[in-house]
Amino acid sequence: MQIAPSVLAADLGDLRGALDLCARGDADLIHVDVMDGHFVPNLSFGPPVIEGIDRHTEQPLDIHLMVERPEELMDKYLAFNPHWVSVHFEATTHLDRLINLIKDSGVGAGVALNPATPIEVLSDILGTLDFVLIMSVNPGFAGQPFVRYSLDKVRRLKRLIEERGLHTKIEIDGGVAGRNLEEVRDSGVDVAVVGSGIFGVEDPLAELRDLRARAGDQS
């Protein structure tokens, strides 16, 4: 399992320091949350900030769009050539069109699902997705408690992917930390987004290194 630190949980006055920490800890991805104050009750990074993040990291970007009508600014996010971009099932009407737009740009395309949205809504489009992002908190704020039934969603999704012979990855975001890392990994998650579980501890670098080691330990 890979670890993607969420820089939303870092000291936003020192994003360069957070990115340097992620590089020293050999993070697999940099998770960047984009919030518009409409789809979720908060504001966060937009294209100018992401441009700065992209300029100061060699780690691939994982851009999570928690915005209404993500298609309206999609070209700006794709211009950063991120590794992955995810849009919410609940936020756009023409999901198939948007996923194809992302994939045609050469970027990995994913769909995020809020906790109460069942995985079955992706039945018809699942084969075209590079990944599915399961929200294990209600999106909008860092530091929320883990929604436990999200792991059942992961297990159901994993079975569906395997039954269809797909290569779709599963990402989880929200409330993941050292205390539940193995349970998350063993449920079938491929990429764990960790925010406060890294940046909210006394020694974030040591915690990131420990999480990466434990994420790959199947013993």
List keywords for this structure.
single chain; 219 residues; TIM Barrel; eight-stranded parallel beta sheet; 8 strands
Question: How would you characterize this protein structure?
Answer:
Strands 1-8-7-6-5-4-3-2 form an 8-stranded parallel β-sheet. It has one domain (2-215): TIM Barrel, CATH 3.20.20. The mean pLDDT is 95. It has 8 helices and 8 strands, in the order E-H-E-H-E-H-E-H-E-E-H-E-H-E-H-H. The chain is globular, with a radius of gyration of 16 Å. The protein has helices at 15-24, 47-55, 74-78, 95-104, 150-163, 181-187, 196-199, 204-215, and strands at residues 2-5, 30-35, 61-66, 84-88, 108-113, 131-135, 169-173, 191-194. With 219 residues, it is an alpha/beta fold.
